[in-house]
């Protein structure tokens, strides 16, 4: 599946964003936050410190559905936003190396 080929309309993004908002209010999401784990770095955080992150960004055709949202700490969330996809890969690799060398 190639996310770069398909154009995502503003309307679709808005619809998925609305679904994400509903998901954020769901018990399912509250339970995930209560686990207190960042999906990306695996760190433990207070539920207040975790935000909803889309694995595939809505702008790239990602959905506001359960299998596309993960809890992320603020650092990972902002890194994901501002890094290029390649830099983000490197960031994840560095997290992986850190956990295997412990
Ligand atoms: Zn994190």
Automatic annotation (TrEMBL):
Gene3D superfamilies, per database record: 1.10.30.50
InterPro entries: HNH_5, HNH_nuc, NA-targeting_endonuclease
GO MF term list: endonuclease activity
Coiled-coil intervals: none
Residues making up the signal peptide according to the UniProt record: none
Pfam families per the UniProt record, alphabetical: HNH_5
Taxonomy, superkingdom: Bacteria
Chain ranges of the HNH nuclease domain: 27-78
Keywords: Endonuclease, Hydrolase, Nuclease
PANTHER family in alphabetical order: SLL1193 PROTEIN (PTHR33877), TYPE IV METHYL-DIRECTED RESTRICTION ENZYME ECOKMCRA (PTHR33877:SF1)
The protein's name in its UniProt record: HNH endonuclease
């Amino acid at each position: 599946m190639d996310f770069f080929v398909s154009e995502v309309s503003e309307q679709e993004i808005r619809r998925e964003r609305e679904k994400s908002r509903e998901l954020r209010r769901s018990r399912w999401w509250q339970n995930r936050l209560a686990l207190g784990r960042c999906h990306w770095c695996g760190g433990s955080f207070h539920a207040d410190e975790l935000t909803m992150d889309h694995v595939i960004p809505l702008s790239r055709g990602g959905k506001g559905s359960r299998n596309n949202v993960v809890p992320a700490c603020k650092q990972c969330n902002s890194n994901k936003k501002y890094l290029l996809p390649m830099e983000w890969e490197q960031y994840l690799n560095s997290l992986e190396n850190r956990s295997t060398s412990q």
